[in-house]
Amino acid sequence: MREKAIVVANKKEHAQIEIRPNSSCKGCRGCSAGKEGKPIRVWAKNCVNAKVGQVVEVELGASTFLSATLIVYAIPLLSFLAGIGLGYKISGLLNINSTEPFAILIGLVLMIISFASIHFFTRRREIENKYSPRIIRISNDNR
């Protein structure tokens, strides 16, 4: 996935970039760019030493984007659903009358554990190197 952006700040080997919504954003309601037309600001690895005010091309690999999405959404969702199933089984074994609230509680606990596990077991260096966007080229057009 490639986008054009404007560099708005620099900090060591990273640059804060502003991605303005393009024509494909207008139909999407996934973020503030599609909903309100507001630009998105993110930090990207500045591989080309871009300066403030320059228009750049930013890249985030499709497989990287997909794996990050699966980690953040699929693992907690599956944990929640497994917890609900486990909660039903345990409530039957323990003769708990309120099976639905108990099952939902167990599902929520497992989902929270999965979020905490993702947070604590994912190394910051790995996130910075693999899941951060990179500035790959300084563009000649001014948007």
From TrEMBL:
PANTHER family associated with the record: PROTEIN RSEC
UniProtKB keywords: Membrane, Transmembrane, Transmembrane helix
TM helices/strands, residue ranges: 70-90, 102-121
Protein name: Positive regulator of sigma E, RseC/MucC
One Pfam family named in its UniProt record: RseC_MucC
InterPro entries: RseC, SigmaE_reg_RseC_MucC
Top-level division of the source organism's lineage: Bacteria
Record's keyword annotation contains Cytoplasm: no
